[in-house]
Amino acid sequence: MFTPSSDDVRRFFCEVYRKHGAKEILSPLEAIALDWIVQHPEYEDALRDVETALTRDYSVEGGQANPFLHLSMHLSIAEQISIDQPVGIRAACHSLTQRLDSEHAAHHQIMECLGQMIWNSQRSGLPPDGAAYVECVRRR
Protein backbone atom coordinates (compact mmCIF):
# COMPACT_ATOMS: atom_id res chain seq x y z
CA MET A 1 0.00 0.00 0.00
CA PHE A 2 1.29 3.45 -0.92
CA THR A 3 1.31 5.80 2.06
CA PRO A 4 2.52 9.23 1.00
CA SER A 5 3.80 11.65 3.61
CA SER A 6 2.17 15.01 4.19
CA ASP A 7 5.00 16.60 2.19
CA ASP A 8 4.44 14.15 -0.69
CA VAL A 9 0.77 15.10 -0.82
CA ARG A 10 1.52 18.82 -0.76
CA ARG A 11 4.15 18.46 -3.48
CA PHE A 12 1.72 16.44 -5.62
CA PHE A 13 -1.07 19.05 -5.53
CA CYS A 14 1.34 21.97 -6.00
CA GLU A 15 2.88 20.19 -9.00
CA VAL A 16 -0.54 19.56 -10.54
CA TYR A 17 -1.36 23.25 -10.12
CA ARG A 18 2.01 24.25 -11.63
CA LYS A 19 1.61 21.88 -14.59
CA HIS A 20 -1.89 23.21 -15.22
CA GLY A 21 -0.62 26.78 -15.30
CA ALA A 22 2.22 25.78 -17.62
CA LYS A 23 -0.24 23.87 -19.83
CA GLU A 24 1.78 20.67 -19.42
CA ILE A 25 0.36 17.19 -19.91
CA LEU A 26 -1.16 15.65 -16.80
CA SER A 27 -1.29 12.00 -15.80
CA PRO A 28 -4.78 10.54 -15.35
CA LEU A 29 -4.50 10.92 -11.55
CA GLU A 30 -3.27 14.49 -11.91
CA ALA A 31 -6.21 15.26 -14.22
CA ILE A 32 -8.65 14.04 -11.56
CA ALA A 33 -6.83 16.11 -8.94
CA LEU A 34 -7.01 19.15 -11.21
CA ASP A 35 -10.78 18.76 -11.52
CA TRP A 36 -11.05 19.22 -7.75
CA ILE A 37 -8.44 22.00 -7.61
CA VAL A 38 -10.44 23.97 -10.20
CA GLN A 39 -13.55 23.59 -8.05
CA HIS A 40 -11.66 25.13 -5.11
CA PRO A 41 -10.20 28.43 -6.37
CA GLU A 42 -9.87 29.51 -2.73
CA TYR A 43 -6.88 27.14 -2.50
CA GLU A 44 -4.86 28.71 -5.32
CA ASP A 45 -2.62 30.71 -2.96
CA ALA A 46 -1.76 27.58 -1.00
CA LEU A 47 -0.87 25.72 -4.21
CA ARG A 48 1.28 28.41 -5.81
CA ASP A 49 4.46 27.96 -3.76
CA VAL A 50 5.55 24.45 -2.85
CA GLU A 51 8.15 25.62 -0.31
CA THR A 52 5.56 27.63 1.60
CA ALA A 53 3.12 24.74 1.33
CA LEU A 54 5.64 22.39 2.93
CA THR A 55 6.11 24.61 5.97
CA ARG A 56 2.54 25.83 6.48
CA ASP A 57 0.71 24.60 9.59
CA TYR A 58 -3.01 23.97 9.24
CA SER A 59 -3.76 23.17 12.87
CA VAL A 60 -7.28 23.17 14.23
CA GLU A 61 -6.24 26.01 16.52
CA GLY A 62 -5.31 28.09 13.46
CA GLY A 63 -8.92 27.97 12.33
CA GLN A 64 -8.13 27.42 8.66
CA ALA A 65 -9.02 24.28 6.76
CA ASN A 66 -6.14 22.27 5.34
CA PRO A 67 -6.53 22.53 1.56
CA PHE A 68 -4.27 19.54 0.98
CA LEU A 69 -6.31 17.31 3.27
CA HIS A 70 -9.52 18.54 1.66
CA LEU A 71 -8.27 17.90 -1.89
CA SER A 72 -6.89 14.52 -0.82
CA MET A 73 -10.28 13.53 0.49
CA HIS A 74 -11.91 14.50 -2.82
CA LEU A 75 -9.30 12.42 -4.65
CA SER A 76 -9.77 9.44 -2.30
CA ILE A 77 -13.53 9.53 -2.69
CA ALA A 78 -13.22 9.77 -6.49
CA GLU A 79 -10.97 6.69 -6.46
CA GLN A 80 -13.35 4.79 -4.15
CA ILE A 81 -16.24 5.55 -6.49
CA SER A 82 -14.27 4.55 -9.59
CA ILE A 83 -13.56 1.07 -8.20
CA ASP A 84 -16.70 0.80 -6.03
CA GLN A 85 -14.66 0.12 -2.92
CA PRO A 86 -16.05 -0.30 -0.38
CA VAL A 87 -18.78 -2.09 -2.28
CA GLY A 88 -21.84 0.11 -2.61
CA ILE A 89 -20.05 3.47 -2.38
CA ARG A 90 -20.57 4.18 -6.10
CA ALA A 91 -24.35 3.72 -5.91
CA ALA A 92 -24.58 5.59 -2.60
CA CYS A 93 -22.62 8.53 -4.04
CA HIS A 94 -24.65 8.52 -7.24
CA SER A 95 -27.88 8.63 -5.25
CA LEU A 96 -26.60 11.41 -2.99
CA THR A 97 -25.36 13.39 -6.01
CA GLN A 98 -28.83 13.16 -7.56
CA ARG A 99 -30.55 14.21 -4.33
CA LEU A 100 -28.24 17.20 -3.87
CA ASP A 101 -28.00 17.93 -7.61
CA SER A 102 -24.26 18.38 -7.13
CA GLU A 103 -21.33 15.97 -7.18
CA HIS A 104 -19.29 18.50 -5.24
CA ALA A 105 -21.87 18.83 -2.48
CA ALA A 106 -22.20 15.05 -2.36
CA HIS A 107 -18.44 14.71 -1.90
CA HIS A 108 -18.54 17.14 1.00
CA GLN A 109 -21.25 15.04 2.66
CA ILE A 110 -19.25 11.86 1.98
CA MET A 111 -16.20 13.49 3.57
CA GLU A 112 -18.11 13.71 6.82
CA CYS A 113 -18.80 9.96 6.68
CA LEU A 114 -15.23 9.17 5.67
CA GLY A 115 -13.87 11.24 8.54
CA GLN A 116 -16.25 9.53 10.97
CA MET A 117 -15.16 6.07 9.74
CA ILE A 118 -11.48 6.92 10.14
CA TRP A 119 -12.02 8.44 13.59
CA ASN A 120 -14.00 5.37 14.74
CA SER A 121 -11.28 3.07 13.42
CA GLN A 122 -8.51 5.00 15.15
CA ARG A 123 -10.45 5.19 18.41
CA SER A 124 -11.36 1.50 18.47
CA GLY A 125 -8.12 0.14 17.03
CA LEU A 126 -10.19 -1.88 14.54
CA PRO A 127 -9.98 -1.76 10.73
CA PRO A 128 -12.17 0.83 9.00
CA ASP A 129 -15.79 -0.33 8.69
CA GLY A 130 -16.60 0.07 5.01
CA ALA A 131 -20.19 -1.11 5.40
CA ALA A 132 -20.87 1.50 8.09
CA TYR A 133 -19.25 4.14 5.88
CA VAL A 134 -21.49 3.28 2.91
CA GLU A 135 -24.55 3.23 5.18
CA CYS A 136 -23.62 6.68 6.51
CA VAL A 137 -23.50 7.98 2.93
CA ARG A 138 -26.85 6.36 2.15
CA ARG A 139 -28.44 8.12 5.14
CA ARG A 140 -27.24 11.57 4.00
How would you explain this protein's 3D organization?
With 140 residues, this protein is mainly α. The protein contains 8 helices and no strands. It has helices at residues 6-21, 28-38, 44-48, 50-55, 67-83, 89-100, 103-124, 130-139.
How much of the residues is beta strand, in percent?
Answer: under 5%
Overall helicity? over 70%
Class inferred from helices and paired strands: mainly alpha
Overall outline: globular
Largest sheet composition: none
Helix segment tally:
8
Assembly type of the chains comes to single chain
Question: Which characteristics define this entry?
Answer:
140 residues; mainly alpha; 71% helix
Write the layout of secondary structure elements.
Layout lengths: L5 H16 L6 H11 L5 H5 L1 H6 L11 H17 L5 H12 L2 H22 L5 H10 L1
